[in-house]
Design a protein that fits this description.
two-stranded antiparallel ribbon, 948 residues, 64% helix, five-stranded parallel β-sheet, mainly alpha
């Protein structure tokens, strides 16, 4: 490709030789740009023109073999006996040391042998080719120059290739050869973008050739081939790949071929294809080129010739020339690799681990002296696994880890801290690094981080850890249920309370406040409900653990039943743009902020910052924080009655973090799974989760409450009322013993009351309901609404409508759709008993719609089982394909009509006019062969969620 001008020039040289004017040709160009291929094409053209062709190919292994190139070149020459014997004598004496006598003898032998070559050319024009003359032995080059000086008037063409460049080892040969008037220099350059495109299309045509032809072509041009079947590349695809392959190959034909094969075989660039082709170029080149490329691969982006020289100890000018040579060949783009696979291949070629480690160690020292960013220096230290006692290494690794945590690079941060731990010598400094390492690894896997807890407990008891690290250590110990060890560390902190600075003393108080809510069994913290909640949002600059302080304030408000007083503070925690994602307490503060809003009966959605919280945890942390974010989203969905979403998010939480790694916190995702599966009617799945073993320490933490609450509702739904009562009462015993017996998200008295009602004991139920309504915080919608619904079912008929009205207002404000469906269902039956059938049927249809939206199949089945006289729904005879005849818009209108909405209300929900609604209904009646909306079939309930 793009060599037509070169071949035309060569044809002129052949004609000159035939006319009696010998010529010499030097073909020069970067490595692997087709010098050998061009020389072969020239040899074929010369043979077709009647020339005798003699050739030699030089290699580095024969560079010191005297007359090695000459032997290759002339051993097949049809010399008569005399010149043949002369050649044999010259070769036989080539091993003797050179002196004046042998020098004169060699010169005379050169003359006789050159004369024999010229006599041979007199009979038939002669082409002598020498490929890669830079590897030729000096003695052979001396003879070749001797011959060239005598070919000016002979039908001889001497063509040699060289890629060493003007500054290479064979520059004297260049200078002597090109000093003759009949010598021509021919420069080869990498292919242009157009040339690469033509090469790829030609390569595509070769792959489509008959099988035998294709094998022959591939054997000659493909540097590496995956023997899997070729990908279906067509001409348009190849044209689209053209610019990408041109950029990655730099126009180098060998690399372009390799890239084509990579895309054809694997659809991407491979280190085993393109990378291997690049290594082929390097290993056949001068050693300085390979050394330079290796240094660039180790140093990374932004390196210079001076950096490479400092790393390898070579001369900067020599390295600069090497970079120029590699760039001219298309292997580099100045000091940068053209594709990441190239660097990967070069590093993989350093098979000796000690050599690679030493390069990275020296690179770390170089970058440190240059003042490079800590992460860059740390990368070299990690690659070298340098555990030497350099005074700067450990501190730099810790700095690199902290900076990496901001971007969520947890694995890199953990690796830096692990190496720093091995470099440290002082006990206090080593303990601090281990504590930080445990915090980082905890985000990746709490099970892995558990290996550090025992030595950290020992360090904390010896006073080697500060309050911040001790607080996180206690949290991690409690996560794994190691309450006794956590108590030891906490007692140590309390014992040295007088030694703390004011900020450390504040952190200890915040820690105890958080423990009083999350792990109250450890502190036996009894709160006084009358006290106001603490400030949940820290003042800037006055606290060294702001997220812990925020978590402590919210925890106290939740424990006292005063969540409604800190709603604004919880919102600010979620929406704060200054949250530090590296703070290990951020997930606690975010979780407590969301729970505060939910407990206060507020809607939690994007406007309250839940999306921000989820994005924060997913972006900056590993599986642990991401799993907790999914678990938090499942809780929000569960409280709102969106059971399919709750199931999906809880399953995601358990996928991102193995169940054993959850520790005592397994109670949260298990509770969400059990309750959501119970509400959706998947009692088999819920039963499997109930049967799953949980740690005993679960019931010493707050995580035990949602688990018991969910298990109680599962047992209630499956008819095990006494077991359900036991679970609900266990919730009460725990919260009562901890000193914060408030309703919150787990109104256990309401659950127990419902179980007693099913057992036919309304007195016990009534007592529990009244007790529930009298508790602190019981005025929120999520607690009072269900309690009033149950009270209405066992209270006087005269008060039933009043209680259900209040319950309906509360649950609508709280947007708990499941409880809304239950209140609507009870309200429907109350209205029916009162004699208002129209109102009863409207309420029933709304209840059925909401239950369907929630995915609460048991409740839907319960509602559909009511007599038609109550529901107003009667099976309608609809012809085959009747519902299928409805358009999508007609289905939406009909579904809302089934729910009891008026034409005006349907128009408002669907953003159309009332006239349009009326026209749709008319067509629905006609297609279904019915007379009015009361005859609409119940099958339309399957469309209700879409209509809503």
């Amino acid at each position: 490709m793009e060599r037509d001008d070169h071949l035309r020039t060569f044809d002129h040289l052949l004609r000159d030789a035939v006319a009696g004017t010998g010529r010499a040709l030097l073909i020069e160009g970067p490595m692997k740009t087709g010098r050998t291929a061009l020389l072969g094409a020239m040899a074929r053209r010369a043979g077709e023109a009647g020339f005798e062709v003699l050739g030699a190919t030089c290699s580095r292994v024969e560079a010191e073999l005297p007359f090695g190139m000459l032997d290759q070149l002339l051993h097949r020459a049809p010399f008569p006996p005399g010149p043949a014997a002369e050649l044999a004598r010259l070769l036989a004496g080539s091993g003797r040391p050179a002196d004046d006598a042998t020098g004169m003898e060699r010169a005379r032998a050169f003359g006789r042998l050159s004369l024999a070559v010229l006599e041979l050319a007199a009979e038939r024009p002669l082409l002598l080719t020498v490929d890669d003359v830079r590897c030729a032995d000096p003695a052979s080059l001396d003879w070749l120059l001797h011959l060239v000086r005598r070919t000016g008037l002979a039908p001889v063409v001497v063509a040699v290739t060289d890629g060493s460049g003007p500054g290479g080892r064979q520059f004297p040969f260049w200078a002597d050869l090109l000093s003759h008037s009949h010598a021509v220099r021919m420069q080869l350059d990498p292919l242009s973008a157009t040339g690469v495109q033509e090469l790829l299309l030609d390569r595509l045509a070769a792959t489509r050739a008959p099988e035998g032809t294709r094998r022959r072509v591939l054997a000659t041009v493909a540097p590496d081939r995956d023997h899997r079947g070729p990908e279906p590349l067509d001409e348009p695809a190849v044209r689209r790949l053209g610019p990408e392959i041109t950029a990655a190959s730099g126009g180098n034909p060998l690399l372009a071929h390799a890239l084509f094969e990579d895309h054809r075989a694997a659809g991407e660039v491979r280190a085993t294809g393109y990378g291997r082709a690049l290594l082929t170029c390097l290993h056949r080149a001068e050693p300085i080129l390979l050394t330079t490329v290796r240094s660039l691969a180790v140093l990374g982006e932004g390196s210079s010739a001076e950096d490479c020289a400092a790393l390898t100890g070579a001369c900067a000018d020599q390295v600069g020339r090497a970079i120029d040579t590699l760039t001219a060949a298309g292997l580099l783009n100045r000091a940068e690799f053209r594709h990441p696979a190239a660097r990967e291949a070069v590093l993989g070629d350093l098979t000796e681990a000690a050599q690679l480690s030493e390069l990275h160690r020296r690179a770390a020292e170089l970058r440190y002296e240059q003042g490079a960013p800590p992460a860059r220096v740390a990368g070299h230290l990690l690659a070298a696994q340098d555990r030497s006692a350099r005074p700067w290494a450990a501190d730099l690794l810790v700095d690199a880890a902290e900076q990496s945590l901001v971007g969520g690079e947890l694995e890199f941060a953990a690796a830096c801290l692990t190496l720093a731990l091995e470099c440290r010598t002082g006990e206090r400094a080593q303990a601090a690094v281990r504590a930080r390492l445990a915090q980082v690894e905890w985000q990746l896997s709490p099970s892995t981080a558990a290996a550090h807890l025992t030595p950290l407990v020992a360090a904390a008891c010896r006073g080697l850890l500060d309050v911040q690290h001790c607080a996180v250590l206690i949290r991690q110990l409690l996560w794994h249920g190691r309450r006794d060890e956590a108590g030891q560390v906490l007692e140590r902190l309390r014992a040295r309370a007088g030694e703390h600075r004011p900020d450390e003393a504040a952190q200890l108080r915040d820690l105890e406040s958080w423990l009083g809510y999350a792990h109250p069994a450890l502190v036996r913290h009894r709160l006084q409900p009358g006290q106001p909640p603490r400030r949940a949002i820290p003042l800037p600059g006055l606290h060294t653990a702001p997220q812990l302080q925020a978590a402590a304030g919210l925890a106290e408000a939740l424990a006292r039943g005063q969540s409604h007083q800190v709603v604004g503070q919880a919102g600010r925690v979620l929406l704060s743009p200054y949250v530090d994602p590296t703070d290990v307490w951020v997930d606690e503060s975010v979780t407590l902020a969301v729970l505060t809003l939910l407990t206060a009966g507020r809607t939690v959605g994007p406007e309250q910052g839940l999306d921000l919280a989820g994005a924060l945890t997913d972006r900056t942390a590993g599986p642990t924080r991401a799993a907790r974010a999914a678990q938090l989203r499942s809780t929000v969905a569960l409280v709102g009655g969106d059971f399919p979403t709750a199931l999906r998010e809880a399953a995601t939480a358990l996928e991102r973090l193995p169940e054993k790694a959850w520790g005592v916190s397994i109670g949260y995702p298990l509770a969400a799974m059990i309750l959501a599966e119970t509400r959706t009617g998947d009692f088999t799945g819920a039963g499997l989760h109930v049967a799953q073993a949980v740690p005993a320490a679960l019931f010493e933490s707050h995580a035990g409450l949602p688990y018991l609450f969910a298990r109680g509702h599962y047992r209630l739904a499956t008819g095990h009322c006494h077991a359900a009562i036991a679970d609900f009462l266990s919730c009460g015993e725990l919260t009562g013993g901890w000193g914060y017996d408030v309703s919150g998200l787990f109104p256990w008295r309401t659950g127990a009351a419902e179980a007693w009602l099913r057992l036919g004991n309304p007195d016990q139920a009534r007592k529990l309901i009244h007790d529930q309504l009298a508790r602190p915080g019981a005025d929120d919608s999520r607690t009072r609404g269900p309690a009033l619904r149950l009270l209405a079912s066992i209270g006087p008929a005269a008060r039933r409508i009043t209680l259900l009205n209040e319950a309906l207002e509360l649950v609508e404000a709280g947007e708990d759709r499941y409880e809304l469906a239950r209140v609507l269902a009870d309200f429907s039956q109350a209205q029916y008993a009162r004699g208002d059938r129209r109102r009863a049927r409207l309420l029933f249809r709304q209840a059925l719609y909401v239950a369907d939206v929630c995915g609460a199949r048991p409740l839907t089945r319960e509602l559909m089982s009511l007599p038609p006289d109550v529901t107003g729904l009667t099976p309608t005879s609809v012809g085959a394909g009747g519902l299928e005849a409805l358009t999508e818009s007609e289905r939406r209108v009909a579904a809302l009509a089934v729910m009891g909405y008026t034409n005006r209300e349907i128009a408002g929900r669907l953003f159309v006019t009332a006239s349009t609604v009326e026209q749709h209904l008319t067509r629905v009646y006609r297609k279904l062969n019915i007379r009015h909306r009361g005859d609409l079939p119940t099958d339309l309930w399957g469309q209700s969620s879409k209509a809503g």
